[in-house]
Amino acid sequence: MARGKFITFEGGEGAGKSTQAATLAERLRRTGLSVLQTREPGGTPRAEAIREVLLSGKAKRFGPLAEAVLFYAARESHLELAIRPALEQGTWVVSDRFSDSTRAYQGAAGGLPRSIVDVLDAAVVGSTRPDLTIIFDLPPELGLQRVARRNPQGADGERSASDLDRFESMTIAFHRDLRDEFLTIAKAEPQRCVVVDASLSMQMVADEVWSAIRKRFDL
Ligand code: T5A
């Protein structure tokens, strides 16, 4: 049986990855493919438990190395129990975030040396690399506005910092570093990565994603 394809979505906050992952998974299913739509951190009970710790901010005080180790602990479970078995059964995997997020968030923006992320990646991910990575690019101000609109307001109608998670609440400079790093990754690996303009309408972004999929795979 042919191995499934492994597609990852990457980008900053509010870039529209979750929305587009659902649209793509549905579109692929309509072609008759079996599809696993998943996310990081998450995708298995153990990884979802680690997600709660990370996004609550409880691990922030331990620094970017400890956070990166936790992201890779979640990724190891995700790969072992969900991604690799699916790919082996011919199922296509669409993952909302993967290793490039650690490179950008804990590495470039968080200050963890790239060499350390590379060691963790080699140990956990090994050869299970994405066949295609779509990078959703948009100005961070726009992504954060979308997140703010989506998040519920308090009873007083005001939005407090506590409505935002560990990474959404970082400075704008942090989010600009993220954007730069995702574009740097795309430039360094053009055979794997395609950048889409995530500031467009949902329909236009979906069309760009589908066009990238059709160009890369024989569908
Ligand atoms: N992280 C993750 C690390 O630091 N290291 C790692 O190794 C990994 C794997 C995960 C956090 O963990 C960090 C990164 C993240 O901060 P999360 O909640 O999964 O947390 O965060 P995100 O992946 O950023 O998910 P978001 O839901 O915040 O953003 P999405 O998925 O990019 O955006 P989406 O689709 O939810 O859309 C956001 C809002 O915008 C609207 C949607 O309806 C929604 O309301 N929208 C649009 N509006 C206008 N035009 C469009 N084209 C739109 N597309 C979507």
Protein described:
With 219 residues, the chain is α/β, with parallel strands linked by helices. It has one domain (6-217): Rossmann fold. It has eight helices and five strands, in the order E-H-E-H-H-E-H-H-E-H-H-E-H. The chain has helices at residues 17-30, 45-56, 63-88, 99-108, 114-124, 140-150, 172-188, 202-216; strands spanning 6-11, 35-39, 92-96, 132-137, 193-197. It has a five-stranded parallel β-sheet with strand order 2-3-1-4-5, sandwiched between helices. The longest helix has 26 residues, at 63-88. The two termini are 17 Å apart. The mean pLDDT is 94. The structure holds P1-(5'-adenosyl)P5-(5'-thymidyl)pentaphosphate. Residues 13-19, 39-41, 55, 71, 96-97, 101-102, 105-106, 146-147, 150, 167, 201-202, 205 line the site of P1-(5'-adenosyl)P5-(5'-thymidyl)pentaphosphate. P1-(5'-adenosyl)P5-(5'-thymidyl)pentaphosphate binds at residues 13-19, 39-41, 55, 71, 96-97, 101-102, 105-106, 146-147, 150, 167, 201-202, 205.
Question: What structural category characterises the helix and strand content?
Answer: alpha/beta
Q: Beta-strand percentage?
A: 5-15%
Helix content: 40-55%
CATH class: Alpha Beta
The whole-angstrom Rg is 17 Å
Number of domains: 1
> Mean of residue pLDDT?
94
CATH architecture: 3-Layer(aba) Sandwich
